[in-house]
Amino acid sequence: MFFSSQRTKLTFTDDGVQIHGMYGDIYAWDSIGVATLMEKLPTIEMRTNGSALGSNLKGHFRTTEFGSVKLYVNAQNPPFIYLETNDEVIIFNMKNEIETKEIFEKLQRKIK
Question: Which of 35, 49, 57, 100 has the smallest set of CB atoms within 10 Å of its CB?
Answer without folding.
Answer: 49
